[in-house]
Amino acid sequence: MNILVIEDEYRLAEALTESLKKEGYQADAACDGNAGLDLALSGRYDVIILDLMLPGMDGYQVLKHLRKEKVRSATIILSAKSELDDKIAGLDCGADDYLTKPFQMKELFARIRAVTRRQGEICEDILSFGGLSLNIRTFVLSSQATSHTLTLGAKEFQLLEYLMRNPRQVISRSQITEKIWGYDSEVEYNNVDVYISFLRKKIRHTKACVEIKAVRGVGYCLQEAGGAL
Questions:
Q1: Calpha distance 84→96 (Å, rounded)
Q2: CB 157: neighbour CB atoms within 10 A?
Q3: Residues 91-116, buried b or exposed e (16+ Cβ, 10 A)?
Q4: DSSP character for 89?
Q5: Angle, CA 29 vertex, CA 26 and CA 33 arms, to 5°
Q6: Cα 100 to the chain's mean position, in Å?
Q7: pLDDT of the residue at 122
Q8: CB 53 within 8 A of CB 8
Q9: Model's pTM, two decimal places?
Q10: Neighbour-count burial for 39-77, b at 16+ CB within 10 Å, e otherwise
Q11: For 117-175, what is each residue's pLDDT tens digit?
């Protein structure tokens, strides 16, 4: 899951992103409203953690613009503003939740889980495509037609989950890199190819009729075995 932190207190933004990464999330940060909005409009973030008092464009403006542009990322306002009117204004602008500073990281993690459940991002335990099943709780990959199962590593799971949520669509290497390793990652594109190779071997092991097809010069597509793009 990709999370964007829009927070002008640099140390807090850094601490948040590091804590989120330790929890297994991909996290990027922006320290002003304009930069945060530019990143958020990409649509690649599942959750946005948004401060209200930002330079350039305040959090209310950022949120209104995102909702106007139909960006569906779940948004949690994280603010020192604790008055009831502030909370009502934030929720009325389109926020999914509102957490006041100071806060405990455990509570923030719980709220992230709650808003993503409400958004329907992780409400199902099993993703299925072409006879291939992926348990998003246990990382277990299996075939519906056989008894073959295996457990994926973290990056393998994130990559296959991304492909299974976008079946029959060509996904570029840059999209995969940003989704799995993060916006500021220095990971080389050939790392994507390496993990695709790992996944192909494991899919073949399950004997499911699914393949990851390469589209030369573009990226990859998850499709039924033998299917045409």
A1: 16
A2: 20
A3: eebebbbbbeeeeeeeebeebbeebb
A4: H
A5: 140
A6: 24
A7: 46
A8: yes
A9: 0.58
A10: bbeeebbbbbbbbbebeebebbbbbebbeeeebebbbbb
A11: 766 544 457 889 988 999 887 889 998 888 788 999 988 998 999 999 889 999 998 88
